[in-house]
Amino acid sequence: MASINDIEIFIEKEKIISSNTISSFPTENNKAISDNKEQSPYEIQVSGLVVGTNAFESLQGLRKLNDNSEIVNYKGRNIFNNFLIKDFDTEHDNTISNGFKFQMSLKQVFIAELEETNINFNIVKPQEVNPESNIGKQSLARIPDDEDSSEFGLSVFGKTLPSVDDLKAKADAEEQLSKTKQRNSYQDEILGSFIGDERKKKSPDVANYIPGLENGGGYF
Question: Is the distance from CB of 3 to CB of 81 less than 8 angstroms?
């Protein structure tokens, strides 16, 4: 006699369905190409009856397995494990006085197993940088503050840079020299223009006269 989880049943017909899923893709010449095959879970379709003094208890047990979606093992002409009841139909007519007829379909399921893994959450410390490194020769001269920056010069690669006061004095001297050059150039231009005008007058007393000498004037 067949059974589902130790519930005895009488099987009249047992059908095993084994199918595969095959993927296909159309091509330019209107032909489909299949490149993958995936086996589908087994499915069992059975029909039979349950009779006897324990028929009502067997009916309640089968309904409980279906309602609670419990994993069942089937034993009949074939033996299968890890199935779920997909459909469960019963018939109650006058041909059976102490039992019922039923039709049932079961489908195979695959159960995933959980595995615990310990994860180390310790923070990885960054790699320390070597403080000792060769960066060339450096001067140990003191870098002046804002208050004493005018008294000290900086030393870079063995050479002393001028102080702030030296830079200011140099800038003032260059500015004074530029002004003097401009002034002398202007005087030379005025003097040359004056001498040229006087020479044009062809005056013998004035043509060779150059003003501005220490004795009040002169001739050349």
Answer: no
